[in-house]
UniProtKB/TrEMBL annotation:
Alphabetized SMART domains for the sequence: Transket_pyr
Identification of the protein by name: 2-oxoglutarate dehydrogenase E1 component
NCBIfam families: 2oxo_dh_E1, PRK09404.1, PRK12270.1
Thylakoid recorded as keyword: no
Keyword Oxidoreductase in record: yes
Family that this chain belongs to: Belongs to the alpha-ketoglutarate dehydrogenase family.
Species, as recorded: gamma proteobacterium HTCC2207
Cofactor section: thiamine diphosphate
Amino acid sequence: MPEGPMEQFLRSSHFSGGNAAYIEDLYDTYLHDRNAVPEQWSSFFDTLPRTNGSTAPDISHATIVQHFELLGRRQARPTPAPGSGGIHLEHERKQVKVVQLISSYRFRGHQKANLDPLGLMVREHVPDLDLHFHGLTDADLDTTFQTGPLYFGKQEATLREIVESLEETYCGSLGAEYMHITSFSEKQWLAQRFESVRSKPTYGDEARVDVLNRLTAAEGLEKHLDSKYPGTKRFGLEGGESLIPLLDCLVRRAGEYGGKEIVMAMAHRGRLNVLVNILGKNPAELFEEFEGKRLVNTSGDVKYHQGFSSNVMTPGGEVHMALGFNPSHLEISCPVVIGSGRARQDRRDDKTGEKVVPILMHGDAAFAGQGVVMETFQLSQTRAYKTGGSIHIVINNQVGFTTSRQEDARSTEYCTDIAKMVQAPILHVNGDNPDAVMFAAMLATDYRYEFGKDVVIDLVCYRRRGHNETDEPSSTQPLMYDVIRKHSTTRELYSQKLVAEGVVTQDQSNEMSNDYRARLDKGEFVVHNLVREPDTSLFVDWEPYLGHDWRTPANTGLKLKNLQDVAAKIIDIPDGIKVQRQVSKIYDDRRKMAGGALPLNWGMAELLAYGTLLDEGYPIRFTGQDVRRGTFSHRHAVVFNQKDGEAYLPLANLSDDQPQFDIYDSVLSEEAVLAFEYGYATTAPKGLIIWEAQFGDFANGAQVVIDQFIASGEHKWGRLSGLTMLLPHGFEGQGPEHSSARLERFLQLCAEHNMQVVNPTTPAQIFHLLRRQAIRPMRRPLVIMSPKWILRHKLATSSLEELAGGKFQDVIGENELDADKVTRVVLCSGKVYYHLLEERMARGIDNIALVRIEQLYPFPDVELEAALKPFTNVKDVIWCQEEPMNQGAWYSSQHHMRHVLQGIDPMLHLRYVGRISSAAPACGYMSTHLEEQKQFIDEALAPDA
């Protein structure tokens, strides 16, 4: 019979024959007290078969003995100490203590490791790394024990050899944290990688010379910039130069695995060095920026915010690298770059992330302090956002601006402890030991490709200067900078080491520095593996989307027959899927809408927009906290089988060769999720990328993404994005946190046609608006104030003909009244229109026209003028909004409306009707809400004085 999982597991090296007796003793202890044995053993014993079907750990002692006997485990006992007189129980008990000692080193050896190049890190004594803690003494050091679970290369060794091996592996220049991982296979893999080589890399002298070359480049650039532009901010890498060979190793290693693209994020520290020495930016261009060169057609940004892309050659072939732009909000660039990575993976149909690898660089203070780090980690293994694992590098300067004491900087021992939430292995490594850094780099890449999960390298270093080159750091860190002034650079230390070992001569080391400096002086490229004629197939093609403005036409209508064909497909649910009762009613109504028996509501029109786009070849990605059903239960784009809970997506089953349609309910995050979708949209120009807020107010949690990327990314960095945001908006008496999508904030950010802000009021409008965003080749963000109350309003309907033959109307004029009778025009936007309309109908008013401004930015002045021109007898023009006066569109849009009115009739003046100014977005009492609403509706529709 073939071996089962249990037999295969027991046959592993640390269950070799002589270990059976002490494992049986360990198991006996476990039966009495599970917590009295190391976690790895208790976890193993938990997996053993149970008796009588019980789930409690009550396997009989005889059963485990039988397992070992079946596998031939009753063999020789551990080798006793010389002269001990044979096997005895005390020795076997100490064998168990040795296993516990090994476990302690795996758990806590990192707390004894030599991680700080400056030697200032305070390390508390770790008692369970002492022999005495485990009931062992110095007298046992020459006693031979089974090496058990230790990947030592031999079955038995003296305790002295075992301890020396553990010290070398876990307490040297690399401190590994991985025992928090619950997966046994991952822990076993990591333990084997660490212990088999004592946490030391196995690479030759040629590779070590290359590391010295990379360190020479890192140090050489900083010295050159300091001499050429003294006192200029650059957030230099001095003290953390090992980052450059580390990155170089990661890129090469990923290329060996078949990687084709690497996307990188980082904040300020070392960015210029990475641009020049990793991505291959020409030093001459960098020098021009220091001297004030201005980029055309952008406002520009500081040098240490700039992104870049290039191609380099690796042992596995050509690799495209892209470093994302970043604002000063540090960690926010990470989810943006991961989003870009996911888009690249989707473009390549790279479902496991083998071809596209995200590398994220962090500062220690930001990594520990900024909540978006947690949010980004939380995305890492979810369906909508996973990328096969990101490699995180913390450039750990051991100080954040001027905050260095641990009790002020964080509440955890390490800045990296947040990564444990997703069970990422953490490799703390001394930046002054480049060999250990290279080992960490290779292991991190291998782990990422083996398990498809995030991994963290904590590069413990220092900053030789202050927060920037204009600071005097000794005023706040006098002891640290007294040590730094006397401390040799990483390159100097490594060069001395290689010279002492005979790998290079001092002259060769000096020549490296001279050669690099000469190339900088000449303005030559300094990246050794830069591809000068890159493979353009690795790039994202933005050419079709350049040079278009917001008036670029788009034919969003289509033949009625095509529309009906798509409608039939999006309402088709296969036999065998049991649909929930209310959902079944919704789909029954949609079938009537498709046949023309019912007018179309919002949900049907929206799904038709997606269906027709997919039918025409445009891919769609749609995420948000409740998007599959819709927060207000209007969408139901996904049907759940009531028999087995399986999801069925009609929009993903239109045809065999349709483009990708992804719709995911996201994690409960706004900041990281919106940043991810922005990054995705900047890398996927074709199609429609949508993020929907649960309530529009919740976009507040992502304000930094809106301010620093969505609104200003094009103007600062020339980065285009067609991201669409659906923000439910409308005052319905639900309180201040469920009413406003903060329309005023978006309008305040609008300038230079940077984005579109709309407030559509009919199903036909949302149909054409969404289609326009995908079909029109202009790529700028679209912000939609989407409805709640009017999703099912009896007046908010459209016909199939309006979808087939219409287009998006920036302004919807008055079509129900005799223009000659109109003496007042009420301008409005959004939901308030229906309140005005219903009340006008109830009162029989025929002289007050209602004109809807559907697109608030870019402001449609031409269209508004055309809508107002028919009313030649108007004496009064009102702007009516439901938002408080200091919010909504009034302050940002009134000058646009007045400009149009002045062009029609200089005597026309615009006045405001709506709620008074308020500190809160809305009231929380329904009675007050209704009173306020009645008051401003009455005022807007009041008879002429």
